[in-house]
Protein backbone atom coordinates (compact mmCIF):
# COMPACT_ATOMS: atom_id res chain seq x y z
CA UNK A 1 0.00 0.00 0.00
CA UNK A 2 1.38 3.37 -0.97
CA UNK A 3 1.79 6.28 1.40
CA UNK A 4 -1.41 8.17 1.93
CA UNK A 5 -1.86 11.95 2.27
CA UNK A 6 -1.41 13.30 5.78
CA UNK A 7 -4.10 15.08 7.75
CA UNK A 8 -1.85 17.85 9.08
CA UNK A 9 -2.54 21.32 7.74
CA UNK A 10 -1.14 24.81 8.39
CA UNK A 11 -4.09 27.12 8.91
CA UNK A 12 -4.27 30.62 10.42
CA UNK A 13 -0.71 30.47 11.77
CA UNK A 14 -1.16 27.10 13.46
CA UNK A 15 -1.02 23.42 12.57
CA UNK A 16 -4.30 21.53 12.33
CA UNK A 17 -4.39 17.74 12.60
CA UNK A 18 -7.34 15.78 11.19
CA UNK A 19 -7.04 12.27 12.58
CA UNK A 20 -7.90 10.43 15.78
CA UNK A 21 -6.98 12.16 19.02
CA UNK A 22 -4.40 9.48 19.83
CA UNK A 23 -2.70 9.83 16.45
CA UNK A 24 -2.67 13.64 16.59
CA UNK A 25 -1.13 13.51 20.08
CA UNK A 26 1.57 11.19 18.79
CA UNK A 27 2.23 13.45 15.79
CA UNK A 28 2.50 16.61 17.90
CA UNK A 29 4.58 15.03 20.66
CA UNK A 30 7.01 13.53 18.14
CA UNK A 31 7.47 16.87 16.38
CA UNK A 32 7.93 18.66 19.70
CA UNK A 33 10.60 16.22 20.90
CA UNK A 34 12.44 16.60 17.62
CA UNK A 35 12.29 20.37 17.93
CA UNK A 36 13.56 20.40 21.54
CA UNK A 37 16.38 17.92 21.00
CA UNK A 38 17.55 19.37 17.72
CA UNK A 39 17.60 23.12 18.26
CA UNK A 40 20.48 23.44 15.85
CA UNK A 41 18.57 21.61 13.14
CA UNK A 42 17.06 23.92 10.54
CA UNK A 43 13.28 24.14 10.08
CA UNK A 44 13.35 22.23 6.83
CA UNK A 45 14.95 19.23 8.46
CA UNK A 46 12.45 19.25 11.32
CA UNK A 47 9.54 19.54 8.90
CA UNK A 48 10.75 16.61 6.78
CA UNK A 49 11.23 14.41 9.86
CA UNK A 50 7.79 15.27 11.21
CA UNK A 51 6.11 14.66 7.87
CA UNK A 52 7.79 11.26 7.60
CA UNK A 53 6.25 10.30 10.94
CA UNK A 54 2.84 11.61 9.90
CA UNK A 55 2.92 9.78 6.58
CA UNK A 56 3.79 6.48 8.24
CA UNK A 57 0.95 6.84 10.75
CA UNK A 58 -1.60 7.89 8.14
CA UNK A 59 -0.57 5.07 5.80
CA UNK A 60 -1.80 2.69 8.49
CA UNK A 61 -4.84 4.62 9.71
CA UNK A 62 -6.42 5.75 6.42
CA UNK A 63 -6.21 2.53 4.40
CA UNK A 64 -8.75 -0.18 5.12
CA UNK A 65 -9.60 -3.51 3.45
CA UNK A 66 -11.37 -2.98 0.13
CA UNK A 67 -14.42 -4.93 1.29
CA UNK A 68 -14.95 -2.65 4.31
CA UNK A 69 -15.19 0.69 2.47
CA UNK A 70 -18.70 2.07 2.92
CA UNK A 71 -20.18 3.59 -0.25
CA UNK A 72 -21.93 6.94 -0.24
CA UNK A 73 -25.71 6.57 -0.52
CA UNK A 74 -27.17 7.85 -3.75
CA UNK A 75 -28.76 11.24 -3.13
CA UNK A 76 -32.09 12.53 -4.38
CA UNK A 77 -31.33 14.88 -7.30
CA UNK A 78 -32.36 18.50 -6.93
CA UNK A 79 -30.98 20.42 -9.91
CA UNK A 80 -31.56 19.68 -13.59
CA UNK A 81 -27.90 18.73 -13.92
CA UNK A 82 -28.12 16.22 -11.05
CA UNK A 83 -31.24 14.70 -12.58
CA UNK A 84 -29.47 14.33 -15.91
CA UNK A 85 -26.48 12.60 -14.29
CA UNK A 86 -28.83 9.99 -12.81
CA UNK A 87 -30.93 9.66 -15.94
CA UNK A 88 -27.94 8.74 -18.09
CA UNK A 89 -26.16 6.56 -15.53
CA UNK A 90 -24.56 3.61 -17.36
CA UNK A 91 -25.00 -0.03 -16.44
CA UNK A 92 -22.05 -2.37 -15.99
CA UNK A 93 -21.65 -6.06 -16.82
CA UNK A 94 -18.70 -8.03 -15.42
CA UNK A 95 -17.43 -10.48 -18.02
CA UNK A 96 -14.07 -11.17 -16.37
CA UNK A 97 -12.19 -9.74 -13.41
CA UNK A 98 -13.17 -7.86 -10.28
CA UNK A 99 -16.51 -6.29 -9.55
CA UNK A 100 -16.46 -2.54 -8.84
CA UNK A 101 -16.00 -1.43 -5.24
CA UNK A 102 -16.28 1.91 -3.46
CA UNK A 103 -12.83 3.51 -3.41
CA UNK A 104 -13.32 5.89 -0.49
CA UNK A 105 -15.72 6.50 2.37
CA UNK A 106 -16.98 9.62 4.14
CA UNK A 107 -14.08 9.92 6.61
CA UNK A 108 -11.51 9.79 3.80
CA UNK A 109 -10.40 6.19 4.37
CA UNK A 110 -9.60 4.43 1.11
CA UNK A 111 -9.63 0.79 0.11
CA UNK A 112 -6.25 -0.91 0.13
CA UNK A 113 -6.92 -2.81 -3.07
CA UNK A 114 -5.46 -6.22 -3.91
CA UNK A 115 -2.21 -7.48 -5.33
CA UNK A 116 -2.54 -9.15 -8.72
CA UNK A 117 -2.53 -12.83 -7.81
CA UNK A 118 -4.77 -15.85 -8.09
CA UNK A 119 -7.96 -15.70 -10.20
CA UNK A 120 -8.71 -12.39 -11.89
CA UNK A 121 -11.82 -12.10 -9.71
CA UNK A 122 -10.17 -13.53 -6.61
CA UNK A 123 -11.34 -11.81 -3.42
CA UNK A 124 -13.23 -9.17 -5.41
CA UNK A 125 -16.55 -10.67 -6.45
CA UNK A 126 -18.48 -7.76 -4.96
CA UNK A 127 -18.54 -5.69 -1.79
CA UNK A 128 -20.93 -6.82 0.97
CA UNK A 129 -21.56 -3.12 1.67
CA UNK A 130 -22.53 -2.20 -1.88
CA UNK A 131 -20.74 -0.68 -4.84
CA UNK A 132 -20.29 2.83 -6.20
CA UNK A 133 -20.05 4.78 -9.43
CA UNK A 134 -18.58 8.29 -9.38
CA UNK A 135 -19.64 11.15 -11.66
CA UNK A 136 -18.35 14.59 -12.57
CA UNK A 137 -19.62 17.02 -15.21
CA UNK A 138 -18.50 20.03 -17.20
CA UNK A 139 -18.79 21.73 -20.56
CA UNK A 140 -16.28 20.82 -23.27
CA UNK A 141 -16.64 23.20 -26.19
CA UNK A 142 -20.41 23.17 -26.80
CA UNK A 143 -21.06 19.68 -25.39
CA UNK A 144 -21.96 18.77 -21.82
CA UNK A 145 -19.84 15.87 -20.60
CA UNK A 146 -20.72 13.45 -17.81
CA UNK A 147 -17.83 11.24 -16.75
CA UNK A 148 -18.72 8.08 -14.81
CA UNK A 149 -15.93 6.13 -13.11
CA UNK A 150 -15.64 2.74 -11.41
CA UNK A 151 -12.91 1.57 -9.05
CA UNK A 152 -11.54 -2.00 -9.08
CA UNK A 153 -9.28 -3.42 -6.33
CA UNK A 154 -6.83 -4.93 -8.83
CA UNK A 155 -6.24 -4.61 -12.55
CA UNK A 156 -3.77 -5.04 -15.39
CA UNK A 157 -2.28 -2.35 -17.63
CA UNK A 158 -1.54 -2.77 -21.39
CA UNK A 159 2.24 -2.75 -21.04
CA UNK A 160 4.45 -5.85 -21.55
CA UNK A 161 6.28 -5.37 -18.25
CA UNK A 162 2.96 -5.58 -16.37
CA UNK A 163 1.17 -8.34 -18.26
CA UNK A 164 2.48 -11.06 -15.99
CA UNK A 165 2.25 -8.97 -12.83
CA UNK A 166 -0.83 -6.79 -12.87
CA UNK A 167 -1.15 -4.17 -10.18
CA UNK A 168 -3.11 -2.97 -7.18
CA UNK A 169 -6.04 -0.60 -7.96
CA UNK A 170 -7.75 0.14 -11.25
CA UNK A 171 -9.99 2.90 -12.62
CA UNK A 172 -12.24 2.61 -15.67
CA UNK A 173 -14.56 5.28 -16.97
CA UNK A 174 -17.24 6.20 -19.47
CA UNK A 175 -18.20 9.62 -20.79
CA UNK A 176 -21.69 10.48 -21.99
CA UNK A 177 -21.88 13.60 -24.16
CA UNK A 178 -25.13 15.61 -24.15
CA UNK A 179 -26.34 18.70 -25.94
CA UNK A 180 -27.46 20.29 -22.65
CA UNK A 181 -27.57 19.51 -18.89
CA UNK A 182 -31.30 18.94 -18.70
CA UNK A 183 -32.93 15.63 -17.80
CA UNK A 184 -36.21 16.39 -19.58
CA UNK A 185 -34.85 17.97 -22.73
CA UNK A 186 -31.47 16.55 -23.72
CA UNK A 187 -30.00 14.12 -26.24
CA UNK A 188 -27.03 11.77 -26.14
CA UNK A 189 -24.71 12.98 -28.89
CA UNK A 190 -21.80 10.65 -28.25
CA UNK A 191 -20.10 8.27 -25.82
CA UNK A 192 -16.50 7.42 -24.95
CA UNK A 193 -14.89 4.57 -23.00
CA UNK A 194 -11.44 4.03 -21.49
CA UNK A 195 -10.76 1.09 -23.78
CA UNK A 196 -8.04 -1.58 -23.71
CA UNK A 197 -5.88 0.87 -25.62
CA UNK A 198 -6.75 4.55 -25.90
CA UNK A 199 -10.41 5.52 -26.17
CA UNK A 200 -13.42 3.84 -27.78
CA UNK A 201 -15.55 6.66 -29.19
CA UNK A 202 -18.99 6.60 -30.81
CA UNK A 203 -20.91 9.58 -32.19
CA UNK A 204 -23.79 9.01 -32.25
CA UNK A 205 -23.85 5.82 -30.14
CA UNK A 206 -25.40 2.75 -31.82
CA UNK A 207 -28.81 1.88 -30.40
CA UNK A 208 -27.65 -1.67 -29.58
CA UNK A 209 -25.37 -0.24 -26.90
CA UNK A 210 -28.16 1.69 -25.20
CA UNK A 211 -30.90 0.52 -22.88
CA UNK A 212 -33.22 3.49 -23.04
CA UNK A 213 -31.04 6.31 -21.72
CA UNK A 214 -28.41 4.03 -20.20
CA UNK A 215 -25.15 3.10 -21.90
CA UNK A 216 -24.32 -0.62 -21.60
CA UNK A 217 -20.72 -1.22 -20.57
CA UNK A 218 -18.78 -4.43 -19.91
CA UNK A 219 -15.65 -4.89 -17.80
CA UNK A 220 -13.49 -7.64 -19.27
CA UNK A 221 -10.02 -9.03 -19.83
CA UNK A 222 -8.55 -8.18 -23.24
CA UNK A 223 -6.45 -11.13 -24.41
CA UNK A 224 -4.79 -9.16 -27.22
CA UNK A 225 -3.38 -6.40 -25.03
CA UNK A 226 -3.31 -8.54 -21.90
CA UNK A 227 -5.13 -6.03 -19.73
CA UNK A 228 -8.42 -5.28 -18.02
CA UNK A 229 -10.64 -2.61 -19.56
CA UNK A 230 -14.21 -1.67 -20.43
CA UNK A 231 -16.01 -2.01 -23.75
CA UNK A 232 -19.45 -1.49 -25.25
CA UNK A 233 -21.82 -4.42 -24.93
CA UNK A 234 -25.33 -5.46 -25.89
CA UNK A 235 -25.79 -7.23 -22.55
CA UNK A 236 -27.90 -5.69 -19.80
CA UNK A 237 -25.83 -4.85 -16.74
CA UNK A 238 -26.23 -3.64 -13.17
CA UNK A 239 -26.38 -0.18 -11.64
CA UNK A 240 -24.32 1.09 -8.72
CA UNK A 241 -25.19 3.87 -6.27
CA UNK A 242 -24.03 7.14 -7.80
CA UNK A 243 -22.22 9.95 -6.03
CA UNK A 244 -21.10 13.10 -7.81
CA UNK A 245 -17.76 14.79 -7.27
CA UNK A 246 -19.39 17.73 -5.49
CA UNK A 247 -21.52 15.48 -3.26
CA UNK A 248 -18.45 13.77 -1.80
CA UNK A 249 -17.24 14.86 1.62
CA UNK A 250 -14.16 17.10 1.61
CA UNK A 251 -12.10 14.33 3.20
CA UNK A 252 -13.20 11.79 0.59
CA UNK A 253 -12.52 14.12 -2.32
CA UNK A 254 -9.11 14.97 -0.84
CA UNK A 255 -8.21 11.29 -0.50
CA UNK A 256 -9.30 10.48 -4.05
CA UNK A 257 -7.24 13.38 -5.37
CA UNK A 258 -4.07 12.90 -3.33
CA UNK A 259 -3.73 9.13 -3.11
CA UNK A 260 -1.07 7.67 -5.40
CA UNK A 261 -3.16 4.95 -7.04
CA UNK A 262 -0.31 3.84 -9.30
CA UNK A 263 2.00 1.58 -7.33
CA UNK A 264 3.77 0.16 -10.39
CA UNK A 265 7.51 0.84 -10.84
CA UNK A 266 8.04 4.36 -12.19
CA UNK A 267 4.24 4.69 -12.47
CA UNK A 268 4.30 2.90 -15.82
CA UNK A 269 0.59 2.03 -15.58
CA UNK A 270 -0.22 5.77 -15.81
CA UNK A 271 -3.00 5.15 -13.29
CA UNK A 272 -4.73 8.26 -11.96
CA UNK A 273 -8.10 9.05 -10.45
CA UNK A 274 -9.74 10.46 -13.62
CA UNK A 275 -11.89 13.09 -11.91
CA UNK A 276 -9.23 14.88 -9.88
CA UNK A 277 -8.37 18.46 -10.77
CA UNK A 278 -5.60 18.59 -13.34
CA UNK A 279 -6.57 15.21 -14.80
CA UNK A 280 -10.31 15.55 -15.43
CA UNK A 281 -10.17 18.05 -18.30
CA UNK A 282 -7.22 16.30 -19.94
CA UNK A 283 -9.17 13.05 -19.99
CA UNK A 284 -12.25 14.72 -21.46
CA UNK A 285 -10.29 16.47 -24.19
CA UNK A 286 -8.68 13.20 -25.26
CA UNK A 287 -12.06 11.43 -25.08
CA UNK A 288 -13.85 14.03 -27.24
CA UNK A 289 -15.60 12.01 -30.01
CA UNK A 290 -16.66 14.78 -32.40
Automatic annotation (TrEMBL):
Keyword Secreted among record annotations: yes
Compartments, record wording: Secreted
Record's keyword annotation contains Secreted: yes
Keyword annotations of the record: Secreted, Virulence
InterPro entries in the record: NPP1 (IPR008701)
One GO term describing the cellular component: extracellular region
The organism's place on the tree of life at top rank: Eukaryota
Family, per entry: Belongs to the Necrosis inducing protein (NPP1) family.
PANTHER family (UniProt xref): DOMAIN PROTEIN, PUTATIVE (AFU_ORTHOLOGUE AFUA_5G00600)-RELATED
Protein name: Necrosis inducing protein
